Amino acid sequence: RNMEAQQVDAVRDEVEELLKEGLYRSAWTLCSFLTSSNQKSKTVDNQAYDWALFGDAAFGLERWSQARGYYDRGLSLLQSGSKDAKSIYPLALRVADCALKLNDGEAAMELMRSVPFDHRPLRHSLEIARLYEKWGKKKHAIMAYQEVLDRSRGRRYVVEASLAL
């Protein structure tokens, strides 16, 4: 591995730490370096991950629209070049989170439903049920809440979901 690749890995590690600490502005600055560094020397998965990190920094700064754009870039890279179909799920859900913040429920719904139920966190499944309820699609809402109840087996979501019914 060449020196540049090692430096990029070190910067990526630093960004991960900054994000964990909630230092989004610093992470943002380093992400601009990560995403502008020599893309040809990186795998598609690494390129997509760098855009996801940039999205995480923007999301932490409550820049929903920018975060959505960065996540979309990473998602596009994965859709066109990743060998692992499951690798798109976390990014699709991050784009959905941005869509929810931007009050774009239809886009959020499409993205959340694109992730198979068993790969989708319960909070996203619950969000699907809430959107159906908000849109007046009671039958779909009840079925979605039932999926959450069946899967949660006594977790805190059960109370939340049953209160919503």
* Largest sheet descriptor: none
What is the fold named in CATH at topology level of the largest domain? Answer: Serine Threonine Protein Phosphatase 5, Tetratricopeptide repeat
**Beta-strand percentage?**
under 5%
State the separation between the terminal residues, measured CA to CA: 56 Å
So what's the CATH class of the largest domain?
A: Mainly Alpha
Q: What is the mean pLDDT?
A: 89
Low-confidence stretches: none
- CATH superfamily placement of the largest domain: Tetratricopeptide repeat domain
* Count of separate structural domains: 2
Number of strands: 0
- The number of helical segments is 9
What is the molecular shape? Answer: elongated
**What is the radius of gyration computed over CA atoms, rounded to a whole number of angstroms?**
18 Å
Secondary-structure element order, N to C = HHHHHHHHH
